[in-house]
Amino acid sequence: MSTFEIRPIGKVSSNLKTLDAAPRQADEGAPEAWLVFEPEAVEGLRSIRPGDELVLITWLDRARRDVLSVHPRGDVARAPEGVFSTRSPHRPNPLGLHDVKVTAIEGGRVRVRGLEAIDGTPIVDLKPVLSPDIAHR
Amino acid sequence: MSTFEIRPIGKVSSNLKTLDAAPRQADEGAPEAWLVFEPEAVEGLRSIRPGDELVLITWLDRARRDVLSVHPRGDVARAPEGVFSTRSPHRPNPLGLHDVKVTAIEGGRVRVRGLEAIDGTPIVDLKPVLSPDIAHR
Fold first, then answer.
1. Is B105 within the bounds of a domain?
2. Which residue of A has its CA nearest to B59?
3. Residue B52 counted as domain residue
4. Which of A5, A24, A70, A107 is 20 to 30 A distant from B17 in Cα terms?
5. What is the C-alpha end-to-end distance of chain A, expressed in Å?
6. CA-CA distance, A92 to B64, in Å (whole number)?
């Protein structure tokens, strides 16, 4: 099957510097962070406003791609599950999905609340959370 | 910035054969469809059950990647918006996010309800919808 090339459009800038420091999910103490966009992607941000709820898609570049079964939450005492039933970063295409809320915008940087991704994580896409209003806009 | 290689793990098999036939969003008449996985990805499906609610990530291989502004819902009478505030398929990394519900599983094929992607669309990832239960599992 054909492969496709992901070209990151920016990077996460966060005080979370290591995987050990990162919470497993955003509701487990994730901080605010900046999304820093490449100059050539900035035009795509122009309709984003503080208060917007967005889905951020990242490429989890520290993840393993050869994993199809994982122990839930890394607990080896628990029976392994297929990765597609988990949010494990380790999976064939290690895309991260993050629900975030915009708190500020400064040129090509967007500040968001509740992001568990670590500093330097490549940004792949950004979409509005799909409400009936957005879906039909 | 480094680029990354997406390796599709399967394809959509659907009666929606053309872009013109596809609804813009799943709640606008999307049919049931099969997700047909590559043999080497099937192990990752083993914990999926009928009734599961999943986020399917696809690669929208017919989309344009050089678009940063779009007219909402393709209506040129409406002012253009930045693509990252829309669900337009045309964007730098044309990933599709689809909320689907599993209705059946047969080996390496998963039947889902409410998928607006057209036949042949490459499948990139599959994740559980993030409920508090899943997040902390």
1. yes
2. A4
3. yes
4. A5
5. 34
6. 24
Q: The domain spanning residue B27 has which CATH number?
A: 2.40.30.70
Residues whose CB falls within 8 Å of the CB of residue B66, separated by 6 or more in sequence, listed in order: none
Place of tokens 């009928």: B50
**For chain A, how many residues are written?**
137
- 3-state secondary structure at position A96: strand
ipTM: 0.91
Q: Which residues contact B25 (CB under 8 A, 6 or more apart)?
A: A130, A135, A136, B87, B116
pTM for the complete prediction? 0.91
CA nearest neighbour of A45 among A104, A107, A101, A98: A107
| Number of domains making up chain A | 1
User: Are the C-beta atoms of A124 and A8 separated by less than 8 Å?
Assistant: yes
User: What is the span of the domain harbouring residue B119?
Assistant: 10-128
Residues of A in contact with B122 (CB under 8 A): 1-2, 4
Least CA distance to A81: which residue of chain B? B47
Measured CA to CA in angstroms, residue A78 lies from A7, A70, A105, A106, B137 at distances of 36, 9, 42, 45, 10
For residue B82, the chain A residues in CB contact (below 8 A) are 43-48
What is the mean pLDDT for each group of 10 consecutive residues in chain A (137 residues)? 96 91 71 96 96 97 95 86 95 97 96 95 95 54
The residues near B15 (Cβ < 8 Å, ≥ 6 apart) are B31, B33, B119
Report if residue B1 sits inside a domain: no
Q: Which of B3, B7, B69 sits opposite A92 (nearest CB)?
A: B7
With contact defined as beta carbons under 8 Å apart, do B18 and B120 qualify? no
In a domain, B68, yes or no: yes
At B135, the pLDDT band (50, 70, 90 cuts) reads low
